[in-house]
Write a structure and sequence with these properties.
Length: 416
Amino acid sequence: MLAGRRFRVEFTEEQAEFAERIGAACRSVWNTGLQQRRDYRRRGAWMNYRPQAHELAEAKDEHPWLKAVPGHCLQQTLMDLDRACRNHGTFRVRWRSARRWAPSFRFPEGNKMALQRLNRRYGRVKLPKLGWVKFRQTRSLDGETIRSATLTREGPHWYVSLLVEDGTAAPTEHAALGSAVGVDRGVAVAVATSDGRLIDRKFTSAVEQARAVGLQRKLARAAKGSANRTKVRAALAKVRARERHRRQDFCAKTARQLANANALVVLEQLPVKNMTRRAQPIVDVHNPGRFLPNGAAAKSSLNRAILSKGWHQFEQALKSVSRYTGTEVVKVPAAFTSQRCSTCQHVNRKSRESQAVFRCSACSRVEHADTNAAKNILTAGLAVIACREATAPPGGVVTLTQEPAGNREGLLLQPM
């Protein structure tokens, strides 16, 4: 089974300088390839990986700095660009800024790499043109085959992510067969389960929040391109990195706990990227050049709250760990899960009195609002499984769809 192993790298000065040059070359190839694709699309034509890879080989004769870096890293950059353009569209793919983009590049051929354990704490991996790269080996890699290696810089430190084949076979069934849980992801509480647990953690302290605000103010006052601005950006990135690492740790541990204990985990189908889009400006037709209030401040606050809880990151961690436990992850529509009573199935938006209190207007049942939503999510997920086992033909797919506006007593199951 494919798995990722991430370690902190300890470069020599020459290796760190060369890694920066590789990252700059990959960034230049990405931006040049993206500009070429956009020019072709404006003329009504298409450009894909093969002709761009051929032109890259010809460009190495004219630009020696392209020949100095590993060619497979540049080709992999064009492959990533081709995949991004196919998935998101040529004009939606972003540029890689020299100031904002963290250098990152991949060595795709694992058979050209060698791994060696130095001592209890350190190991080293041999990468093309970089030579032996020393890293802090915090876990054993015995019996694992390297498929690829990705080097990424975060702040002042470099990290290597090894894609390995760990030799583990996917389990056919879960140890606790028949166990199931519904999960509601929220803003006040990160994870609420159908069995009544509220799982949350603070990723930043009050002192760190105050420091981040102070650094943001210093950054706004610092002159662009100055050494002071670079210093402040590095300090702010360090604070944000601690918050990001705590969030990753929370998502991984919570996902592991749920996957180990349950054979079925049901989530809401939440389009996090669309939910966190910024509010669109509203033009005042009576006053040209002016805009009407659009609630941008409140929307920005909600976006930050959603992103700070790591909804998508938790879902990805749950899918990853479920491969090893045999847990099935099912997603159901989120419509009316927070407005429906889990006991009598009555739907009324007024039943949710506050962020935490759900009081049914029909049966007067009182429960934590997130727990009530998690129970509804679990019920919908069990209905999907039951319908799939009972009515779906071999290879068929069953999806859960929302009812018409006139009937909101439940959800409809429709085989496709």
